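Appendix C reproduces, verbatim, an entry submitted by the partner laboratory led by Prof. M.T., so that reviewers can inspect both the input and the predicted structure.
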Amino acid sequence: MSATPGSDTPGSDASDWSNTPKWLMPRPTKEDREYWEGAGRGELRIQHCTTCGLHQHYARMLCSHCGKQTLEWVTASGSGTVYSFTVIRQNGVPPFNERIPFVVATVDLDEDGARMIAAMPGVHPDDARVGMRVRAAFRPAGESFGFVDFAAAQ
């Protein structure tokens, strides 16, 4: 379909995800600051375990696969495959109530072991599919940080 996400009306501007309320802005911790700063630079930063070789997202102090502390930050390719998704059709909380319907997906990144959940604001709900190839897309979240969304791969 060609209708704009966030509306049942083609050409609507309800899919504007550029305005983010202050209360939704990231509040980085020492464990995840690199992720948020990387997103602000247009990079998808994830952790890589030098012991088992697998990747992970979200940031942790230990490898979620082997339990070791041998983690390093790497820049992921930003490419992945939709593992699962849902369409949000009801939400009474601003600004999400102005964006419905929209897609939220679980994405298996191309880097082994890493999976993440993100919005897909540019994908119409009728076009979302399990197995579809996606790429990371970035939105500013204040001056230094960013949000990671996903868009259909070209």
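The helical segments are 33-40. Additional entries are available on request from the coordinating office.
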